[in-house]
Amino acid sequence: MATSVDANAAVVDTENPAISCDDESSSHLVQRANWLRAALLGASDGLVSTASLMLGVGAVKADVRAMVMSGVAGLLAGACSMAIGEFASVSSQRDVEIAQLERQAKRGGEEERALPSPVKAAAASALAFSVGALVPLAAAFIGNYRLRIGVVIAVATATLAAFGCMGAVLGRAPVARSCARLVLGGWVAMSVTFGLMHLFKASGI
């Protein structure tokens, strides 16, 4: 479920006067686009994993409370997992960059670099996952069992399609293919989870 956030900041080359303000602005725009794409991936992870978990529980037990509680547990566990993984990853990256800066300083280099923040990266990952997880969770309060399952799948599908469109626009990729890939992946995850758990129920395990 983990999603990697590119937290590298722009490098200011003080020895190259050819760098213009336009180059710096373009670099900042690229960084913002990368952060947004990473956020979309995190939200997609939260949506697919939580919807699949809720449908898996729903395949075994039709109770509204069971599905809601499974969704809440999935949100909390996934957000914590994303935050911890991102914090460890960005902390390691930060240590490497600090070591590089220290070596450059010893050689007389004057390169400036904004170091990535593990805390900010962890918070961003947890928030993105939580936002995605809230989408299917909001549809889990419907009393009718069949309608609840259908709404969870429909809402998850529509949101995944929207995420795919936004990701395609940011990455300048074909929109239809990006949407289809994300939606089909979500369907596979939800179908496998629901189907296997339904088999467990049928077998009496």
Q: Give helix and strand order, one letter per element, not per position.
A: EHHEHHH
* Number of helical elements: 5
Sheet with most strands: strand arrangement: 1-2
Number of strands: 2
Largest sheet: 2 strands, antiparallel
Radius of gyration: 21 Å
What coarse outline follows from CA principal-axis ratios?
elongated
Q: What gap, in angstroms, lies between the N and C termini?
A: 27 Å
Could you tell me the strand content as a percent range? under 5%
Low confidence ranges: 2-21
Class by helix and strand content?
mainly alpha
Helix content: over 70%
Mean pLDDT: 81
Structure commentary:
- This protein is 78% helix and 2% strand.
- The model is unreliable at 2-21 (pLDDT under 50).
- With 205 residues, the chain is an all-alpha fold.
- Helix 1 (21-60) runs parallel beside helix 5, helix 2 (64-106) runs antiparallel to helix 3 and helix 3 packs across helix 4.
- It is elongated.
